[in-house]
Design brief:
The complex is a heterodimer of chains A (115) and B (114).
Chain A lengths: L1 E4 L4 E5 L4 E3 L2 E4 L3 E8 L5 E7 L5 E3 L5 E5 L4 E6 L8 E9 L8 E2 L3 E6 L1
Parallel strand pairs in A: 2-12
Antiparallel strand pairs in A: 1-4, 3-9, 5-6, 5-10, 7-8, 8-9, 10-11, 10-12
Chain B lengths: L4 E3 L2 E4 L5 E6 L6 E8 L3 E9 L2 E4 L8 E7 L2 E6 L8 E8 L8 E2 L3 E5 L1
Parallel strand pairs in B: 2-11
Antiparallel strand pairs in B: 1-3, 3-8, 4-5, 4-9, 5-6, 7-8, 9-10, 9-11
The chains are: A mainly beta (115), B mainly beta (114).
Chain lengths: 115, 114
């Protein structure tokens, strides 16, 4: 079985400051890793994903995440946030080679960017 | 493609009534997921289908909940009878079912049971 832990339920940060949203997972098998973003009253949208290869993955809007296998982490970072980044962010895993594919989500982190 | 389409967007119903939520997945996707989102429990996987067959329904809270996928382009989640604690946002998502591609989410149905 898999589980995802996002320890920070809310993260306030000032505009143009850096931010890190933490994600740790537990799994008995290798997993694919995802970060999703949810804006108010909308569904979840994919932000970035790690499948294999380079452990650092980037999104088109300046976010990046690094897969750390030894620490079973996939933290999300942005060097300089904007007001428009205010949203809820979800980390998710999907087991590899399981034959059945499902996505297990963390409880989410609300990022509040302050002017 | 229009993406995953859910209906209705909002539903208000009285306790004890039957509620049916609907989902049309992205054409060509063979996996479909129903999630429930609440402040207390976050995003919970209720059930998922692969090629129209239910694979894992262990997240369905109780017998009042049922889900069907009669064909590749339609799924329903039914609650009968509904209770106030069922109030939540219900999301449907679909994927190509290979695990290394993302799930695409609908806009959700906000259910309020009074």
């Amino acid at each position: 079985a898999q589980s995802v832990t996002q320890l920070d339920s809310q993260v306030p940060v000032f505009e143009e400051a850096p931010v890190e949203l933490r994600c740790n997972y537990s799994s008995s098998v290798s997993v694919y890793l995802f970060w999703y973003v949810q804006y108010p009253n909308q569904g979840l949208q994919l932000l970035l994903k790690y499948l294999s290869g380079s452990t650092l993955v980037e999104s088109i809007n300046g976010f990046e995440a690094e897969f750390n296998k030894s620490q079973t982490s996939f933290h999300l970072r942005k060097p300089s946030v904007h007001i428009s980044d205010t949203a809820e962010y979800f980390c998710a895993v999907s087991p590899m080679h399981s034959g059945t594919y499902k996505y297990i989500f963390g409880t989410g982190t609300r990022l509040k960017v302050l002017a | 493609d229009a993406g995953v389409i859910q209906s209705p967007r909002h539903e208000v119903t009285e306790m004890g009534q039957e509620v049916t939520l609907r989902c049309k997945p992205i054409s060509g996707h063979n996996s479909l997921f129903w999630y429930r989102q609440t402040m207390m429990r976050g995003l919970e996987l209720l059930i998922y289908f692969n090629n129209n067959v239910p694979i894992d329904d262990s997240g369905m809270p109780e017998d009042r909940f049922s889900a069907k996928m009669p064909n590749a382009s339609f799924s329903t989640l039914k609650i009968q009878p509904s209770e106030p604690r069922d109030s939540a946002v219900y999301f449907c998502a679909s994927s190509s079912g290979t695990g290394n591609t993302e799930a695409f989410f609908g806009q959700g149905t906000r259910l309020t049971v009074v």
